[in-house]
Design goal:
alpha+beta, globular, Chorismate lyase, 3-stranded antiparallel β-sheet, Arc Repressor Mutant, subunit A, homodimer, 7 helices, DNA-binding
Chain lengths: 260, 260
DNA sequence: CAGTGGTCTAGACCACACT
DNA sequence: GTGTGGTCTAGACCACTGC
C-alpha cells in the first residue's frame, strides 16, 4: 500500500484529502497534511500537536512514518520536539529562537545582546505598492501595503535603520501605536495578532554609503559605510509576507553567518 | 544492551575503540566511529564507504542504527548518499557543491557564475603568525603560517581581494605556482594534495572602506564601500585550518544568505 | 540479475516530565 | 504510574544503478 492517502478501501479516515501532490513517499504525504493543518491554524504557535501515536491512528500509518514526517518539519524549525512533553508548533516568541533572523551580533562576547535594547518607530503608514515592492511581495502594483520605518539602538547607540513593507490585507489594523507598545520580537506579534508565522527568509547583503537622511537618523559621521540587508520573509507555502531593507552599523557589531 | 560499544562479551569486533565519549545513544557512537575513519583517511573524498549492511555487521548493530548515523553525517555534508550506488565521502570537487562557501552571487540571474572567471595570485609567502592570526588558527604566536593574497575577477572585473592564512605544517609544500596552475576550487586542491577537508566555516561580515593599496588592487574609484568577510574554516573535529579575509565588491554582486 | 540506498511496519524498551 | 518523545531491532518490500 503505497499509492495515495487514505487508501481507497478506507474512506472513513478522519482526514479529507484533495490537494495531495502526485506520487511521493507516505511520510511526505503525512508531512503535507501536517503542514496543511499548521497553515489552517488547527494548531497554533506554542501549542502542542497530537502525539505521534494519535497522528498515526488519524492518518492510518505507523508511528515511525509519522515520526519521520515530524522529524523533517522539526529540522525546518516548524515544530519543536520536547522529550516527555510533546511536539509543539514553533514560535518566534520562544526565548531560545527569539530574533532567529537577526544575524547582527556585538563584537564583544556580550552574547546575543538579547535583542535590541531600544526601538523607535519613526514612521508607519499605508500606501500603494511601487513596482519593486509589489514584485517582492507577489502583489499587484498599486495594492495597499503597510510601510514601517524604525530605528533600533544598542546601549543607546542607533545601530539599525529599517524600512519594512507588509501586504495590507493580512495586516489590517496594524498601527504605529500597536508596534510601539509591543515588547518582544515583531514576528511574535505577527503570530498572535495576525496569525502570520514567518518560516524562512532570504537576505541580500551589500556594502553602501547612506544618504543624508539615513545618516541623520543613525546620527553617523560622514563617510560611514553600512551594511545593506534586504530581506524577504516567507510564511508557510513559500508565500512572501514581508520585505525589509535594513542598514546596519558594523563598527561595534558584525553580521554573523555559519556556513555548513 | 545500551552501555558501550562493542559489548564486553564480544571483544572480537573488528573495531578497536579507545576514545569513545561517555554515555550516548548507539547511533551517536557509530557516528563518532565513522567520523574517526573519515578523519584518519580510511575513506578518501569522493570514494564510497562500505554499504549500510557491511557497516552494521562491522559495528554489530542493526542497519537502521547505521542508517541514522549516516543520515546525520549526510545532513552535515560530510557524506553524500546516492540511491542504488552507495554512500560517498563528500568533496569540494563535486560540481553540485563547488564553491559551497562562496556566498557572493551576481545580481543578474546568471546563476552561480560557476565560480570565479579569473584568478590571480598576488602574493604567497611563509611568515611568523601574528597574535591575532595565531589565535584564529589555534597556533602559538610565531608559528609558521602560509599567507596568500589573490584577486578574483568576474567578466574581467576585479571583484574579490582575498588574504588567507594557512598553518605551515599541514600545508608544507604549497607554493604560488601550485596554486596558480590549479583550476578548480582551492578547497578541492587542499583535499587531494594535503588531505585537508574543510567541513564548515564561520563568517563575520562588515561594511568597510578600503585603504589605498586595497583600492588599487581592485581598481576602484575612491569612496567605494566594500563587504569585509572574515572567514574561519574548520576541518573535522572543529579544528580551525584557514583564516580568510576578503573584500567583496557589491555593486554588481551581493552576498546571499538563506535564513531557516 | 544482484547490490545499493529508501520506505514502512511492529514491537520492545529507554529517558524524561508531570502529577 | 502514565504519557510523551527517543532509541533499537528485525524483517519486508520498493526504487534505482549497473552488470
Amino acid at each position: 500500500m503505497n499509492t495515495s492517502l487514505p487508501p481507497t478501501d478506507a474512506p472513513a479516515a478522519a482526514e479529507s484529502l484533495a490537494a495531495i501532490a502526485a506520487f511521493s513517499p507516505l511520510y511526505q504525504q503525512i508531512k503535507s497534511l501536517i503542514l496543511q493543518s499548521l497553515q489552517a491554524g488547527e494548531w497554533k504557535p506554542s501549542e502542542s500537536i497530537p502525539s505521534e501515536m494519535d497522528l498515526a491512528l488519524r492518518y492510518r500509518v505507523s508511528q515511525g512514518t509519522v515520526r519521520k514526517a515530524i522529524d523533517e518539519l522539526a529540522s525546518g524549525h516548524l515544530l519543536i520536539r520536547k522529550q516527555g512533553k510533546g511536539t509543539f508548533v514553533a514560535t518566534h516568541a520562544e526565548h531560545q529562537v527569539q530574533y532567529r533572523f537577526l544575524k547582527l551580533v556585538a563584537d564583544q562576547g556580550d552574547l546575543n545582546t538579547e535583542g535590541p535594547a531600544q526601538r523607535e518607530i519613526v514612521d508607519c503608514k499605508r500606501l500603494r505598492a511601487s513596482a519593486d515592492i509589489a514584485r517582492a511581495l507577489a502583489l499587484r502594483s498599486g495594492d495597499t501595503v503597510l510601510q514601517v520605518r524604525r530605528v533600533l539602538s544598542f546601549a543607546n547607540v542607533p545601530t539599525i535603520l529599517e524600512d519594512l513593507w507588509l501586504p495590507g490585507t493580512p495586516f489590517k489594523g496594524l498601527t504605529a501605536e500597536r508596534l510601539a507598545e509591543y515588547h518582544g520580537p515583531m514576528y511574535a506579534l505577527f503570530e498572535t495578532e495576525f496569525g502570520v508565522r514567518m518560516v524562512r527568509a532570504e537576505e541580500k547583503i551589500r556594502a553602501v554609503l547612506p544618504d543624508k537622511s539615513q545618516r541623520e537618523l543613525l546620527q553617523l559621521p560622514p563617510n560611514t559605510p553600512l551594511l545593506s540587508v534586504e530581506r524577504i520573509a516567507y510564511t508557510y507555502k513559500d508565500t512572501p509576507m514581508e520585505l525589509r531593507r535594513g542598514l546596519y552599523r558594523t563598527d561595534k557589531h558584525h553580521y554573523h553567518n555559519d556556513l555548513n
